[in-house]
Write a structure and sequence with these properties.
Two copies of one chain form a homodimer. Chain A is mainly α and 191 residues long. Helices cover 70% and strands 0% of the residues of chain A. The longest helix of chain A has 27 residues. The interface between A and B is medium-sized, with 26 and 26 residues. The first copy, chain A, binds a DNA duplex (30 and 30 nucleotides) through loops.
DNA sequence: CCCATGCGAACGAACGTTCGTTTGTGTTAT
DNA sequence: ATAACACAAACGAACGTTCGTTCGCATGGG
């Protein structure tokens, strides 16, 4: 198969790129076609609707974070270890799938009510992982007793999600160093 | 004046509301007219273009933060005091002008190149205030010597800007308590 | 009387989407 | 080996709608 025709996955990937850059409503099907070197109408050989593309990209983003959390929660040892794994996992997801994550974070609200509700539920369940680990850390004494797991989770996720806004791959900081800096900063607020 | 006709400021305020909720490209001039109880075409008695509305809302947002920083930097005493003033001021701006801030943070990238460049410059100058205060704190020994003013500013602004995403006015936490919680959290990462 | 305000029709362009057709490629039958 | 077929991918025109914007006209308060 020497020929390089486009597959559905190519279309979804291009949609992630453009939705991240210009937003869902700022991207037309003809824009998307141009990105792939074909006409807007040709996209309908791969996809039922523009909305479907948004659903697919956003749900991909939700799944990435979901799986990262599931894996981090199995890390043995102290709650501090697991919190570090959550942070590192989050950084990995953001840096490895910047376009998908941008779309997930910024364009999910453009979804219809049903899909948006599902995404919000997934987001809440992800935040719950942070809350649990922080509660564990309070329980075993590694975090201060007056820490509020709910508010702390929000603060930590604020720092992590903002990565998408300022991180540029050309940055001098490599992935591990960045994750470590963030982990150090947020853990300072808990200990 | 029994009659309640609309002024230019009303149109800009409504634009801030809708741009915040649905995004710039997700808001039509007819949507905006409906919000004010008139036809989309009638808006052109107050405004030259839709783009002008975005410019005005976003520049309002930039100005609010600019002024908050200018005032916070004049606070006498320790760098810690001034950092606290920066945090409190930021929280105040976000909570008092949630729609304008949302539009400022999320829709500025929809501006044309010239205006966007000006907004980015304003944002950089605002971040610079945080960097300076942190550098002062390192200088006078109130912050750890290994703190990186640049990275720390990014982290702090991440927490502050994320407020717009999760804060709901019905929350149990009042404004001062919220600012204090945030200040405590971010200062822990510096001391 | 003026002038700001709003109406309502209209403009051309762009939108998401549909449709019949063409193109190229891999598979099957001869 | 070649001819016939099947099928996915892309084209290009066209659809009805919505977009931002313009324009001429009505109206009512200072």
């Amino acid at each position: 198969m020497v020929t390089a025709r486009n597959t559905r996955a190519d279309v979804v990937a291009a949609a992630g790129r453009l939705f991240a850059k210009r937003g869902y409503h700022g991207t037309s099907m003809r824009d998307l076609g141009r990105e792939l070197g074909l006409l807007g109408s040709s996209l309908y050989a791969h996809v039922d609707s523009k909305q479907d593309l948004l659903v697919e990209v956003v749900e991909d983003g939700a799944r990435l974070f979901q799986e990262s959390a599931r894996s981090a929660l199995t890390v043995p040892g102290s709650a501090l270890h697991r919190l570090g794994a959550l942070v590192t996992g989050h950084v990995d997801v953001v840096l490895s799938h910047q376009d998908v994550v941008r779309t997930y974070l910024n364009e999910a609200r453009m979804l219809d009510d049903d899909h948006r509700a599902r995404v919000i539920a997934a987001r809440d369940s992800y935040e719950q992982a942070f809350r649990e680990v922080i509660a564990q850390g309070i329980g075993d004494g590694s975090f201060r007793a007056d820490v509020d797991p709910k508010m702390s989770s929000i603060f930590i996720l604020s720092v992590l999600n903002a990565l998408e806004r300022w991180y540029r791959p050309a940055g001098e900081l490599d992935r591990d160093a960045l994750a470590e800096r963030i982990a150090k900063f947020v853990e300072a607020g808990l200990t």
